[in-house]
Design brief:
Radius of gyration: 50 Å
Shape: rod-shaped
Helix content: over 70%
Strand content: under 5%
Number of strands: 0
Length: about 180
């Protein structure tokens, strides 16, 4: 057994150090230097997260595309609904124009001439019991001064109804009023 004392000779230290150096080959020293030059490898948790993201990249992309597709389909359905509403409104307006033109044609020039030469109170009483669309068309074709005096002779509610019918006959109630 070798005893080491506090006063050891330098040669004995070299022998002990040489014994330890013999067990380490020269290639290992170079490997350690190369490993020291390499950047440190990421922690295992970061590697696992990266691997998870890599594995799920395709699934995440497909899920995003599916979500975007569903949103686009929802928007397309909303656009189709809005177009249907606009088409319905367009049909209402076309129908209103047709009815308006038809009512204006019914109020022939001869009838207009007759009402324009009548006394305002007599014309007002006849127009008050007439169909709304026709009465509004007749009043619309009369000269403004004559139409104003006739409307002045009518009940205020009926005069307002006919005036409104001249502007927007689709909202005016149809039929005869007294």
């Amino acid at each position: 057994m070798i005893r080491l004392s506090f006063f050891v000779r330098p040669a004995s230290i070299l022998v002990a150090a040489g014994f330890a150096c013999i067990s380490v080959p020269a290639g290992c020293v170079e490997q350690k230097k190369a490993d020291a030059a390499k950047p440190a490898e990421p922690a295992p948790a970061a590697t696992e997260a990266r691997q998870f993201c890599t594995n799920n990249l395709t699934n995440a992309g497909e899920a995003r595309i599916a979500w975007q597709t569903s949103k686009l389909l929802d928007l397309e359905a909303q656009i189709k609904q809005r177009l249907a509403e606009l088409d319905a409104r367009k049909a209402q307006l076309v129908e209103w124009l047709r009815k308006h033109d038809e009512a204006m044609k019914k109020a022939a020039d001869e009838v207009i001439a007759i009402y324009s030469h009548m006394k305002p109170d007599a014309a007002a009483s006849q127009l008050a019991v007439m169909d709304d669309a026709i009465a509004a068309a007749v009043i619309a074709k009369l000269p403004p001064r004559v139409a104003g005096t006739i409307l002045n002779e009518m009940e205020p509610a009926r005069a307002a109804q006919l005036a409104h019918g001249m502007l927007a006959p689709e909202t005016a109630p149809q039929g005869k009023r007294s």
